[in-house]
Amino acid sequence: MSWLVTGGAGYIGSHVTHAMCDAGIPVVVIDDLSTGFAEFVAPAATFVEGSLLDGALVEDTLRRNGVRGVIHVAGYKYAGESVNRPLHTYEQNVTATLTLLSAMQRAGVEAIVFSSSAATYGTPDVEVVDESTATTPESPYGETKLIGEWLLRDVGRSAGIRHTSLRYFNVVGSGSPRLFDASPHNLFPKVFDMLYRGETPRVNGDDYPTPDGTCVRDYIHVADLALAHVAAARRLDDGLPVERVYNLGSGAGTSVAQIMTAIRTVTGIDFEPTIMPRRPGDPARIVATGDLAARDLDWTMRHSLEEMVSSAWEARRQAGDTYPR
């Protein structure tokens, strides 16, 4: 009996897949390779190339591999771009989730861990959010993630599917030099790519009401995130109670200026970032507490900021001219 990881050839999904395999859990991966890399898939995993929108393929994959649970990581994860591509975002994040849940019901699969997002909170009116903070998403991406949580809730009530959703902010670092973040929209790969080309990184705004004037966010190491997914899957496997939602956060946060300092230290490249205007809608500070996840999922920040930066930089250097593809 195995677990299915959707999007298991992507940056986050591949780390989850490797962590599941390392824990001795048989894994099947389904990924359409629109943003993932086949070589990211753990060698011990079974790989199926295909789309979650293909319900027949998904159901066949579940049945053929004796899948007992799903970790749903696949999705269109670009909040800013989702504003320009709302229909694509809804198709990839809502229609695909609905198709997956339908296939799970037909195949008798009764457990799912949903990789959600702190984008569901929008711009909260508190400095540190917890699971009771109001959800007011401000992008199609955040909306689709919240709808995904609603779908799990409703199917859980009607069909008895056991589920939990993990919300998190900025995922960084690398658990292996060969697994890198290829997103053109995330802070670390954007800065590293500019440094790789000999350009000067940019910071959007340095006049926020924070200690150093730059935005403060939660940054968590992708390997820590992967372990939380494994813990959630194990808890569902064991029939233990789970919360409907868990935040995976640091409780403290890190500023963009602190990130830039760490990048200078780790890379040995001396630079002063170019200060750009604020981006509309960027809140000064968004940080989440991970207390519930620490209680149930052994959640903790196992990596320092320097380790996050150094592991991500090493993976970027290893990728060389193959990145971006």
Secondary-structure blueprint of this entry?
Layout: E1 2-6, H1 11-22, E2 27-31, E3 46-49, H2 55-64, E4 67-72, H3 79-84, H4 86-107, E5 111-115, E6 128-129, H5 140-159, E7 162-168, E8 170-172, H6 187-196, E9 202-204, E10 216-217, E11 219-221, H7 222-237, E12 245-248, E13 254-255, H8 256-267, E14 274-276, E15 285-288, H9 291-297, H10 305-319
Parallel strand pairs: 1-2, 1-4, 2-3, 4-5, 5-7, 6-15, 7-12, 8-11, 9-14, 10-15
Antiparallel strand pairs: 10-13
Largest sheet: 7 strands, parallel
Q: Could you say what the CATH architecture of the largest domain is?
A: 3-Layer(aba) Sandwich
What is the arithmetic mean of pLDDT? Answer: 93
CATH superfamily of the largest domain: NAD(P)-binding Rossmann-like Domain
Q: Which structural class should the secondary elements be placed in? A: alpha/beta
Radius of gyration: 19 Å
Distance between the termini: 35 Å
Protein name: UDP-glucose 4-epimerase GalE
Enzyme class: isomerase
EC number: 5.1.3.2
Organism: Mycolicibacterium parafortuitum (Mycobacterium parafortuitum)
